[in-house]
Specification:
With 134 residues, this protein is mainly alpha-helical. The chain is 60% helix and 10% strand. Strand 2 and strand 3 form a beta hairpin. The model has no long low-confidence stretch (mean pLDDT 91).
Length: 134
């Protein structure tokens, strides 16, 4: 089999997973130190992460978070109760729920995103994708 893995492939995959886990652990500790959960941070990040707008639909957030839509709704409600996000009906499609950050949410996200960017700057070369796509 020409696609068989050799020892160096396992070493590369192992190192990549190790570095990824180190970054994720950093992230978990950083967000918890700022009073939010990793899922709440990701929800805020993805809310701001869409090109050309500062909101996301609940369906888009569910996809980005890789969770079922009702799980995303529950997460949005928890973030709303903490004053991090707000919900409103879509202008063009009233069935759509648009989630945007509050001023408090923006403040928390900016602090955390700065920390994550700095960590990625220092760990960036270790987190590169280990195999080229063919």
């Amino acid at each position: 089999m020409s696609d068989a893995l050799d020892k160096s492939d396992f070493e590369t995959l192992s190192e990549f997973r190790y570095q990824l886990r180190r970054f994720l652990r950093f992230s978990e500790e950083a967000v918890q130190a700022h009073g939010v959960t990793p899922q709440q941070y990701l929800l805020m990040l993805h809310t701001q992460g869409f090109t050309g707008r500062d909101w996301a639909s609940v369906g888009e957030l569910a996809e980005r978070l890789q969770m079922v839509p009702h799980g995303a709704v529950a997460l949005v409600k928890r973030c709303e109760a903490l004053g991090l996000v707000q919900r409103q009906r879509g202008v063009e499609d009233r069935r759509e729920v648009q989630v945007s950050l509050t001023a408090q949410g923006v403040e928390v996200l900016e602090k955390l995103a700065f920390l994550h960017r700095e960590e990625l700057k220092s760990a960036g070369s270790r987190l590169r994708v280990p195999f080229e796509q063919g």
